[in-house]
Amino acid sequence: MKSIVEIAKSAGIDEQHLELYGKYKAKLSDELWEQVKDRPDGKLILVTAMNPNPAGAGKTLTTIGLSQSLNYLGKKTIAALREPSLGPCMGIKGGATGSGQAQILPADEINLHFTGDIHAITAAHNLLAAMIDNHIFHGNPRGLNPKKIVWKRAMDMNDRALRNIVVGMGDGNGMTREDGFMITTASEIMAILCLSENLADLRERLNHIIIGYDFDDQPVRAEEINAVEAMCVLLKEAIKPNLVQTIEGTPVIIHGGPFANIAHGCSSVIGTKMALKLADYVVTEAGFGADLGAEKFFDIKCRKAGLTPSAAVVVITVRSLKFNGGVKVPDLAVENLSALEKGFENVKRHLENLQKFGVPAVVAINHFATDTQAEIDAVIALCQAAGAEAALSKVWAEGGAGGVELAEKVTRAAERPSSFRFLYEEDLSIKDKIETVVKEVYRGSGVVFTPLALKTMQKIEEMGMSHLPVCMAKTPYSFTDRADLLGAPVDFTIQVSEVRISAGAGFIVALTGSLVTMPGLPKKPAAESLYVDEDGQVIGLS
Amino acid sequence: MKSIVEIAKSAGIDEQHLELYGKYKAKLSDELWEQVKDRPDGKLILVTAMNPNPAGAGKTLTTIGLSQSLNYLGKKTIAALREPSLGPCMGIKGGATGSGQAQILPADEINLHFTGDIHAITAAHNLLAAMIDNHIFHGNPRGLNPKKIVWKRAMDMNDRALRNIVVGMGDGNGMTREDGFMITTASEIMAILCLSENLADLRERLNHIIIGYDFDDQPVRAEEINAVEAMCVLLKEAIKPNLVQTIEGTPVIIHGGPFANIAHGCSSVIGTKMALKLADYVVTEAGFGADLGAEKFFDIKCRKAGLTPSAAVVVITVRSLKFNGGVKVPDLAVENLSALEKGFENVKRHLENLQKFGVPAVVAINHFATDTQAEIDAVIALCQAAGAEAALSKVWAEGGAGGVELAEKVTRAAERPSSFRFLYEEDLSIKDKIETVVKEVYRGSGVVFTPLALKTMQKIEEMGMSHLPVCMAKTPYSFTDRADLLGAPVDFTIQVSEVRISAGAGFIVALTGSLVTMPGLPKKPAAESLYVDEDGQVIGLS
Question: What number does CATH give the domain A117-235?
């Protein structure tokens, strides 16, 4: 690893604009933004994916590798990534910092407490929760209906026992009521931090958070219980983007990490904009496959932040193709050309969808050791037949050098004039926006709304917030709302079971099926395999 | 503020041993300890106090000021302090970093997330909690009795609604059972971190934590559910002491901050030992008055860490004297010589107690603007009559220069040969240890144990852990277990309502009366007065 001061220098950042966290991590000062804000933007490349198999597609890996490959080609490039959440590191997932020759460093620290951003969000979230119950305890002057408090508590841990709880039991401990914890990445504050332009914007968004409803069923906002200024105090460092490096010394801005279901799943606007001022190319990613991640990246993040993407990379794997062709997870390493061809229907649909946004797409075939040559040849032929540029990416094994062909194709795509457009206009009704996404992106025949969802949509219209974009919460495995319908299903409807308003973040969440915002731990949690070795190094995370 | 690199240099610490957190905070590397561990120790000065009035006595202020005064006299001095907890900063207390000309900097960052130590402890605590419920969820192979889980959850927030809760409600969310949150400073992990010598010792202590009891009523320890290695991963940075500075540039090691009731209330052994190797004088403090703080500092921290204190400073205030003489809080600013004289009985008892530990004591009269000259003269005369050295301390207004007389008297006391001894031997029975503290320090006539306390003591004997020192949990306002019995009460008994074992920290907690380990917020929380100003500075914390 090079010192972060040196990495910063390579990105044109003077040491005075760094707030160091050890030798290899730094926050970027507010003054840096003032210095660079009038520069022209670099080109923004979105890394997205086909519907993944349960082990993932390698999107973060490809984002990191591609940024290295672009630098390898002499293009000044910065990767803009999400911060890993601690909870999943202790659960199934392990770390979220790439791997092999395409990873960001120091991996263990980034995966653990990093620069404290997520802890700060947890604290701000729970301060608001504590102040809500305290408001009721001390006489409830605002008239909050304790049965209609929608602001829950948060923790960056996978802890199913906290999903549904009863708080305030016992004498002197306030109102007894049902409540629950979500994982911090699902907190609206995480989404807010990632969509804010600066601290003033953050404050304004926090003010707008709806914490619950009063006895007249009118919304009560965070600003009404005087919690927001102290929340800003807790978040004033968390809002500054973090600088780290890849294993090859490419600068990486890593900042924020909202869920890709209940939220939009992209790293922060502040971090992305900073990167665009500092580099010719910025490679960023969005959570899940393109049906969720890319759509929300375009329709929420780009729309709200005024960003124009120049190209998209669709990460596919032979494994994911076979999974989408019906192969079960234990058999994914076995050659299966017919399943692969069948699964490719999934990729074709994503490619067509990206055209609807006017964004040129390149397919990255993320190489696995178990891929056979026949399979790779077949995938490349399928991409060509679909009219898509494709490149085999060996960044895991070879780092930047393993993604040169991909990088070349991406730069050519990005140099074409952009015709980026949104999928829908905001002034459509909520119902029409949801139906547009379902019909145009998922290719469903229609949407079934539950009475509860219809009632909430009505309420949002009444509150004058129906102009906000929609944030779909759906299984990542399928275009449909059923995880087992793989490939490119047709003739299905999507059920919207519930609608929620994230008034501070500025979007309307449409839940399809049930949504768990607090994961559990598996029978053998990843935590059981972690340890600190005799040299003080963390083993088991990367 | 000087850069922390410069402050470190003044303490003889090379930059290579610093892990910087911004320009003004650093963690000290493990290698530094290896380099200095064979040096002779400096002199250890404990700052303690009479029983405080509800606004506190100014112990932290005096600790900081005295360290500055000693440096002013040319004695190389480091202060060793506790880390503030975020929860109380949002509640009544505001910050905990001193004030006026005797404060540590950067106050806002130290009071907020600092270097993330407390967040790391929260995470480790809740990982263990999540793994307990997950263990039961996945078949409960160890046979944990869900009704006898003693490991609760933790949060660094004042949130009374979380004191008593029900977790695991709803299908798929595990065992429904009663639980609760404590504030993180009350976590046994905080006490463990503060008593550990190094990471290996930390691991061993975490292994010994009793998380609950099995169906045969045998203790189940953290090591039995494979949680400890991952907890060490989460704590590997938190165990390193932090370096900051006072407003006059005196180096301060600030590390750990356990409650002074359910735990021993002192900063970390690692930090204290490091400071003793780097300075000629180390000024440290212990929570609450000398009846709790000094006794536990001597009998738990010094005993376990092999530390020998050279002198104690008893902080008194004219206000606290009048409070102990029966004056109510609103009237504390009014001159009242008879109440002052009556309240001085409280100081006399503390001074006698310190003699029992063989530690020379100096009285520091922490000056307030409302003190009249007649009151100050009276206090000095009372100290002289009691045979105690005393000095007026004006460190709040004047910084180090305002405590020169105090510092001179402290150095003279510390140069006398030490005859430090513990109050009791560890091999006494639990009952005898508690009775010794009550009779010798509090001056009660005896102890009444509830049947529950007796049963637990019996169980601790059976588990072979009765040799551990006792950690008294008692109101700080009185020598008795009743907050309203001020001064120097006689003819009272102490009721021990409950006994708990902190097997990892290594002490037996005796609870007198009820103990709240999760504070609440007041009607107008301090959080409502905090804000970030236009220059990005936090207003309302110091």
Answer: 3.30.1510.10
Least Cα separation, residue A112 to chain B (angstroms): 7
Identify the pLDDT of residue B104. Answer: 97
What was the pLDDT predicted at A248? 98
Tell me whether the omega of the peptide bond preceding residue A417 falls within 30 degrees of 0, making it cis: no
Partner residue facing B133 (CB), from A22, A161, A540: A161
pLDDT, one tens digit per residue, over B213-253 is 999 999 999 999 999 999 999 999 999 999 999 999 999 99
Model-wide pTM > 0.95: yes
Model confidence at B93: pLDDT above 90:
no
Task: Reply yes or no on whether the pLDDT at A94 is more than 80.
Answer: no
Return the CA Rg of chain A: 23
| CB-CB neighbors (< 8 A) of B155 in chain A | 126, 155
Q: Rounded distance, CA A222 to CA A225, Å?
A: 6
Q: Output the average pLDDT for chain B.
A: 96
Can you tell me the ipTM of this complex? 0.96
Q: Do A160 and B541 touch (CB under 8 A)?
A: no
- Beta strands A309-316 and A43-49 are parallel
- Cα(A274)–Cα(A68) distance, rounded to whole angstroms? 18
| CATH annotation of A4-115+238-415 | 3.40.50.300
Residues in chain A closer than 8 A to B163 (CB atoms): 169-170, 173
Q: Which residues of A touch B174 (CB under 8 A)?
A: 160-161, 520
Residue ranges covered by each domain of chain A:
4-115+238-415, 117-235, 433-511
The amino acid at B19? E
Q: What is the mean pLDDT of chain A?
A: 96
Res A444: pLDDT: 98
User: Residue A219 phi/psi, 5° resolution?
Assistant: -65, 145
Cβ atoms of B141 and A134 closer than 8 Å? no
Nearest to A150 by CA among A435, A454, A475, A459: A459
Same fold flag, B4-115+238-415 and B117-235:
no
pLDDT (0 to 100) of residue A481: 95
Q: How far apart are CA B231 and CA B250, in angstroms?
A: 33
How sure is the predictor about A542, in pLDDT bands with cuts at 50, 70 and 90? low
Residue of chain B nearest A536, judged by CA positions? B236
What is the 3-class SS of B58-126, one letter each residue?
CHHHHHHHHHHHHHHCCCCEEEEECCCCHHHHHCCCCCCCEECCEEEECHHHHHCCCCCHHHHHHHHHH
pLDDT at site B59: 95
Q: Do B159 and A232 touch (CB under 8 A)?
A: no
Across the interface, of A155, A230, A525, the residue whose CB is closest to B131 is A525
| Residue B126 structure tokens | 């809740």
Q: Cβ–Cβ of B123/A113 closer than 8 Å?
A: yes
As a CATH number, domain A433-511 is 3.10.410.10
